[in-house]
Amino acid sequence: MSATVRRLRGPRRVAIAREILESLPAWFGTRRAREAHIQQAGRAPMYVCEDGAGIVGFLVLERLMTAAWEIAVMAVRPDRHRRGAGRALVAAAAAHAAARGATLLTVKTLAPSSPDRAYARTRAFYRAMGFVPLEVFPTLWGRDNPCLLMALPLVPPHRRRTTSALSRP
Question: Which of 16, 37, 88, 130 could connect to 73 by a Cys-Cys bridge, CB 3.0–4.6 Å?
Answer without folding.
Answer: 37
